[in-house]
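During the reporting period the student researcher (J.K.) took over the structure-prediction task from the postdoctoral fellow and processed the backlog of single-chain submissions. One of the processed entries is reproduced below for the supervisory committee.
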Amino acid sequence: MYLDLSVDFAQEEVKGYAEIMVIVASVDGMLVKEELAIIEALMGRCMMHPEMRVDVRNLLENPPVLDLVLSKLKPVVLKIALRDAILVAAVDGEYDESEIKVIKAIARAAGVRKKELSALFEWVKTGWEWHNESFQLLKLV
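J.K. obtained the following structure tokens:
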């Protein structure tokens, strides 16, 4: 996975970021292996301390309250979390209404407008198409 702004987050910001990923993954009541895998990858990309990863994994059964998490994060963290929350929501192949509701709440907290949010959804769609093209190139599907 690539490096990005999240490697510069303070540990408390990384924790809040990961908590948002947990909330998005669990909001529809179903955790699938793809969601767990992407959360693990995102925690790795953030250089999250292994002990903190255990704490985050434990939250999967009882996620934190979204508004409390959003209120303690800076806009830059919220914007990166928004981008990655859309990835987490998309990884199982569809967006659940409850996931969309959480994503919109993150966007509001981050000050991201509807047009920008739509562009992020399109970016994720294009990214998944690009990624899946590799399976076709390798004749794996």
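The committee noted the following: The two ends are 23 Å apart (CA to CA).
J.K. will present the remaining backlog at the next meeting.
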